[in-house]
Amino acid sequence: MHELSLAVNAVEICLEESKGQRISKVVIEKGVFSGVDGHAFEFAWPEATKGTDLSESAMELVERDGLLRCKSCQHSFASKELITLCPKCENFNFEIIEGREFRVLSLEVEHVS
Known about the structure:
Blueprint: H1 2-18, E1 22-31, H2 38-49, E2 58-64, E3 66-70, E4 76-79, E5 94-98, E6 102-110
Parallel strand pairs: 1-2
Antiparallel strand pairs: 1-6, 3-4, 3-5
Helix pairs in contact: 1-2
């Protein structure tokens, strides 16, 4: 399950970026074409945060639709499916513009004085 290693890597990034501040929420962006199973990642998150400063943090997984561009007519269109036809010219000749992303999108930190 590579989602556990992705969760561990995301935790490491969060801890590094927080610079010792307490993190209350992590938002992760997952593109529909990223190859990451959202349910498996959500299941792995508590295990990855166990024993860390993130163990009490909330995690929100935001799925981003894909954006494809037809190589035949240059039309760009949103899609959640890779097996699709261009809605303008009905060709199956496109490139992925967006939707492969998998990243820590934001951290909510609590400022402790």
